Amino acid sequence: MNMGSTDRGASDDQISSLPSWKYKAINTNLELEHDWDCNPRNIKEDPECCICLAKYKDKEEVRQLPCSHMFHLKCVDQWLRIISCCPLCKQELEK
Fold first, then answer.
1. Which uninterrupted H or E stretch holds 77?
2. pTM beyond 0.85, yes or no
3. DSSP codes of every residue in 10-76
4. Up-side HSE of residue 31: CA atoms within 13 Å toward CB?
5. Which of 23, 29, 76, 80 could cross-link to 56 by cystine, CB 3.0-4.6 Å?
6. What torsion, rounded to 10 degrees, do the Cα atoms 83, 86, 88, 91 define?
7. What residue intervals traverse the membrane (predicted)?
8. Cβ 24 vs Cβ 31: under 8 Å
9. pLDDT given for residue 61 in this prediction
10. What CATH homologous superfamily does 12-82 map to?
11. Residue 8's pLDDT is what?
12. For the chain, domain boundaries
């Protein structure tokens, strides 16, 4: 079984179309600073990437999937190239 088959992974265009921004920690209130013109929103979940298990650090790039789960950009991009679904809930990316 070839886990890196092209029919299971997402294309670079699919991955780059997903929203990404730089993580921003402000005091004890953790917030996100978006690349687009939206107000930052508070994170209510534990601020760590479930792929690498490391906490998000200030100014690290993060990416959000359509299911709203968030990961380090580099971690989730690598994951999506292998299999095009969320590592947590397994929701598929739209083709």
1. helix 73-82
2. no
3. PPHHHHHTS-EEEEEEETTEEEEEESSSS---B--S--B-TTT-PBP-TT-EEEE-TTS-EEEHHHH
4. 9
5. 23
6. -110
7. none
8. yes
9. 96
10. Zinc/RING finger domain, C3HC4 (zinc finger) (3.30.40.10)
11. 87
12. 12-82
